Give the backbone structure.
Amino acid sequence: MGTADPLPPGPAHGLLCAALERIIDNLDVPRINLFDFSYGAGLAHGSARRVPGRIARPALVGVPVHLTGEQPALWRRAADHLARGDAGTFATMVTGALRCLDEDRAGRGAHAGLQR
């Protein structure tokens, strides 16, 4: 992110978990509550398994089970907001698009919150 070095080629899950653990160390707190979604949900889950004593409450949110025809247009609209400097609307749209809205899938609070 920002001025960080690029990730090494190949699987970097262990590296990313170690980076998250270092962030917790730098916060100088014994445990954190951790919310993550999409790619980050795997990272949060892996970190909670690696160092369960450091993650008090993980909140993991997945991605849609399948793509619909409307999603490319949604991503273009979101990118247009970002290009105009409207990061807030971009973030809201992206977060909403990455949530599973399938009514047949179980998940407490899966359908509450952000709107597209």
